[in-house]
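Format notes (please read before filing issues)

Several people have asked whether sequences and structure tokens are stored in separate files. They are not. Every record keeps both together, in the order shown below: the sequence lines, then the token lines. Line labels are part of the format and must not be stripped during preprocessing.
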Amino acid sequence: MIIDAHCHVWPDEIARKVLADRPVGLDPVHDGTLDGLRRTMDNAGIDMAMTLAVANAGRTVWRTNEFVGRVDRSRFLPFGTVHPDLSVEDNLAALRENGIMGVKLHPLFQSVAFSDTRTREILTALAENDVPVIAHVGSGGTEEQNDRGAPRDLNAMMKHIPGLRLIAAHYGGYQVLDEAEQWSVGTGVYLETSWPPSMGTLPVERIRWIIREHGADRVVYGSDWPMTDPATEIAAIRALGLSADEERGVLGGNLARLLRLELPANT
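Then the structure lines:
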């Protein structure tokens, strides 16, 4: 079974506008809609995908979670949003009442920082309620945005929230792989493999070393759809020279275990 841990989705009527505002050099290759994601998954042989929805302001948290909470649960795993403008209780209610199974945290587009007390309070509450989190880690924006998601601050934060099930996107340090190796690799987080415009741009030997140094059983495949083509990213995973067991784990088995999914016996 193949499960994609990193797929951004928006309502049809706003997906085009959102993607038009993306940074230069990160041009989308798909449309960002749920129907578009389903077609992409079918073409790439992907069984399930985490659908990530992010609110840039507190006032949009509820309707963002309402949207992603309505996805088809047979194919999609809804990961919603929180925001420090809201109380911890309001954030939890917006997740719970919309049936959201996990949270996407995005320091580049939200005013959340790993070093911020408000962020840590929300994540502590998520850990106490056993809600998994996937977070952008590393660069990709302005200096201020990059600092909010710095690998060193993620490392420090996780020491204070030991029970948090957290997936660190982009090998734990987008565009700052040296920092990822120093602060993310070998820690208690799960690493996720996406690296727009393609993981295939990274040195095979280095990525294989990172996966095994961290523990191949704690690495999960993600594409960062619609910014990359999932089939291409799956091929890049298969080109790493991992063992059959390691590859199966990265492509879906590890994430299924982390999210405690009940899967058919033959997957």
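For reference, the curators noted about this record: The chain has one domain: 3-259. Residues 108 and 143 are 10 Å apart (CA to CA).
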